[in-house]
């Protein structure tokens, strides 16, 4: 590369050269190649390339997609007609607004003088082994064998603002993780009005956008639509990632399917409000930005201060949407989840909520626990309703915030109860909702100012509760102490951490992000203090099913909707980005509490055992004889296949939105075991029975097929498949295949 014409840029570059401790820096690793100021990141099946424009110091994208071995031939833009100048016509890594690129920018900085123009130019770069963490934020991790990192240092010499763009590649997972930090090196205070974690320009003309939409009890429904001219996108303003949209976007070529075609997935490692913008500009390029929601962000940086964005994981696959999903699953299991349980078999559980709701006391809980043990569960979870003394938690109107066991309901205390349950051969788990407070509570009487509020505006309640301001260090300490005290008081091995409302009135736009930094500090502290506890996230179901949570909690309650038919769509949708191992899925009573649908207990259990954390959420005393009799065998089956669910690869063979015969398939890590789940959601007559063609098998190997007594080759199973017969609506089959 030749140095620029512009003298200022040359001067900066020379300063950088003088300052760089070259000896300490690798210029390349096997996954990162640097040629002057051209950069290439190569995974097993992905290449990501960009270079410094030698005239402007801007970073220009050359390629993001399947493997290439050099820069492709492209046409130099040397003449433009019209208002859109050259930088508005090229693919840029860190685009600004205000200098002729009229597309959505990656960032916007209000400079000390008030204007929002920026001009970042390349200054220097570093190549590091491994993947560094981000201060105070969840992030993927890996050592030199797993990942390499390129940091590109940019500088705006007009305002003395520095930006470091970080690119980490996990070659085995075809994943590139990006984040950015901004440092104010000037003398005045600047304000970050927008800072996306990632901005990417793709050249493809014809792309579809894939995302997960929903609402309470309807999370994770897949939507696919054409990327059209103009901007399209989605966001959360709920203060949390939310049920409404997930911080995940895929752009796929319009012809891509589950198993073929190009798919780019982008997953924001964050739990707060976020925004995704996809813009197809006048020149036909498609730009996507994903990051903090600018509506809830306006961050001041005083001289010397730095702000770090959350990171965004991008995955590319030429094996379609399914290929993309499996890369996310593997990466997240091995390089995002820190819990020791991330790839461990999970105990099947019985949770008291749907069976007892607020009917909790020593005798009802002991009875329910004994019935759980009799059925074969391994973990008993006492849900809401166990705490509060002055304002007992006997309904959702009081008690949140008062994390002491209720002495009337549990006269012998928590420890005695836990000991009794453990004597039945069960582990004991407990429900908390530590980020919340009921106005009717001792906590609120003492600290009304701890609830998030904006001056004298009404504090709007939902579910009779308010949100505690976790941005305040004293509130963080209170939560850490309250939860620690209970966990230290008895041998509790599982915690369900719930969070049942969104954030409303905030005192300033940055509260949401400060709150998240506070929550992350609390999670880090508690999970380090109690590493042997299995932590499960929950937020009215899947209101916070996001990669930020997964850093500390290896599983999340997927939805309050336990209707098995709906759950197929929710779990298949959620699996676009999140591993099935992370999904909590339970069998509840019929007719289902939210949809009123009735399905057989085996159908409900088969759907639930596709999730890593299988359980029952019912009172066995309400089951009819026949249902009850089936449960021990269903629990045993769930337990038998759980190692494959938790560590294996998942293939969506047929989608519930496309067919009455949705199907999914797991392959164990070593390829020796396969589990096929096949469902009939609507019975018809005089149609041929469906075929299920397996995927990802060893074509040469032979597999025994369930209890058919037959063995078939991988080729036969993949190219011809297995034909199955069903009986009535909501019928299901689970078939285990073993490699011979
Ligand atoms: C910039 O780089 C291009 C391509 O490498 C080269 O053709 C051109 O002469 C360079 N321009 C300057 C001003 O150095
Ligand atoms: C920044 O660069 C411009 C253009 O090269 C130059 O005119 C200006 O003097 C530089 N400013 C500073 C503060 O270095
Ligand atoms: C990578 O590409 C090779 C060759 O096309 C293919 O066999 C392999 O399955 C791909 N791997 C993944 C993970 O997509
Ligand atoms: C900004 O990010 C880069 C890359 O991660 C890192 O090396 C640098 O230390 C960060 N700067 C600050 C002040 O945190
Ligand atoms: C900041 O102020 C000091 C003292 O006035 C001055 O020497 C320095 O150049 C200024 N730095 C920048 C980046 O403007
Ligand atoms: C315990 O709760 C059950 C309902 O779940 C109730 O029938 C029973 O009377 C309660 N027992 C006591 C001692 O409060």
Automatic annotation (TrEMBL):
UniProt xrefs under Pfam families: Glyco_hydro_36C (PF16874), Glyco_hydro_36N (PF16875), Melibiase (PF02065)
Reactions catalysed: Hydrolysis of terminal, non-reducing alpha-D-galactose residues in alpha-D-galactosides, including galactose oligosaccharides, galactomannans and galactolipids
Tagged with keyword Hydrolase: yes
Record-annotated Glycosyl hydrolase family 36 C-terminal domain positions: 662-737
Domain of life: Eukaryota
Reported cofactor(s): Mg(2+); NAD(+)
UniProt keywords, alphabetically: Glycosidase, Hydrolase, Magnesium, NAD, Signal
Signal peptide feature range: 1-26
Domain Glycosyl hydrolase family 36 N-terminal: start-end pairs: 84-301
Enzyme nomenclature, EC number: 3.2.1.22
UniProt cross-references to InterPro entries, sorted A to Z: Aldolase_TIM, Alpga-gal_N_sf, Alpha-glycosidase_related, GH, Glyco_hydro_36, Glyco_hydro_36_C, Glyco_hydro_36_N, Glyco_hydro_b
Family in the record: Belongs to the glycosyl hydrolase 36 family.
Protein's job: Hydrolyzes a variety of simple alpha-D-galactoside as well as more complex molecules such as oligosaccharides and polysaccharides.
Subunit field text: Homotetramer.
Protein name: Alpha-galactosidase
